[in-house]
Specification:
Strand order of the largest sheet: 3-4-7-8-9-10-13-14
CATH topology: TIM Barrel
Organism: Streptomyces kasugaensis
Pathway: Pyrimidine metabolism; UMP biosynthesis via de novo pathway
Cofactor: FMN
GO molecular function, one term: dihydroorotate dehydrogenase activity
Helix content: 25-40%
Mean pLDDT: 91
Structural class: alpha/beta
Number of helices: 9
Keywords: Flavoprotein, FMN, Oxidoreductase, Pyrimidine biosynthesis
Bound molecules: flavin mononucleotide
Length: about 300
Amino acid sequence: MAAATQVLGLDLANPVVVGSGLLTDQERNIRKLLTTGAGAVVTKTIHPNPPAGLDERIIRLPTGMINSTTYSKRSVSHWMDILRGLARDRLPVIASLHADTPAELAELAARAAAAGSRALELGISCLNEEDGLHDTPERVHAYTEATRAAVRVPFSVKLASGEGLHDRAFAAARAGADAVTISDTLPAAVVHPETGDLRLGGVFGYSGPGIKPLVLASLWQLRRTGFTLPVLASGGVQSGRDVHDYLGVGAVAAQVYTALHTDMYLTLARIVAETAGPGSTGRGAGPVTEAGRSERVRS
Ligand SMILES: Cc1cc2nc3c(=O)[nH]c(=O)nc-3n(C[C@H](O)[C@H](O)[C@H](O)COP(=O)(O)O)c2cc1C
């Protein structure tokens, strides 16, 4: 049985969290995802100044999707009304926030906390902005430190797997984060078969089952270096087995997003049921052991 758990001070009925994205840009969806069984839902990233005029699209691939989307286009004041209503109903919702500068993010976090949000995720690692993402430990530290100085509510800092993750994760921890979320989408490209050009015109965010082994490896390596903050896993969850794989490498919860672009509520209900079901404690569902690894290679 997938145990109830605590994440960022919220009591979750189960460790399956719906990650931030287009599907969580509407209050109606957020509420229905919760009644469908999500342990918690992360809102679409709220931004005081979302980029305008970008070509924001999704391309489906056999192993996931590439998207060029950025932040919610709803105004901050509209979001504050939504957050107030969700907080009034004591719903386990995590407000995802980002801004152009650490000071603006701190101000936004203070507004979300004043609206009643009990948990936040700093969505600072989107690579789809015009200039891409040049993330550094210093940048992570600055956003985290400013937010910590502004709010007492627990927050997670969302990071992308890949080069330098170790230093960025420790920077978040040192600057006062309560948890980290790993991973945001990863840089990827697809060639158009007819034109030979890159589809969407460049490198954008890759998500779905193709990134799960990479994220799993990142979490495992991070734990081995002595990283002790809670980690929310995010990347390619499609089944209860995937959730347990992440719990097995030390995540406190697993987010699911891309899988929900197909039959959103049915898919979520299945993943929650599989996470709780008897099969979830079977072979390979626990911590990754040497035996487990070699067994899986053979099967
Ligand atoms: C269309 C789309 C929109 C997304 N929007 C956001 C966002 O606004 N904020 C954020 O932190 N992550 C965003 N993500 C990233 C997801 O929350 C998630 O971290 C990532 O896709 C990996 O998980 P998955 O493989 O289960 O999708 C988005 C992903 C997709 C595919």
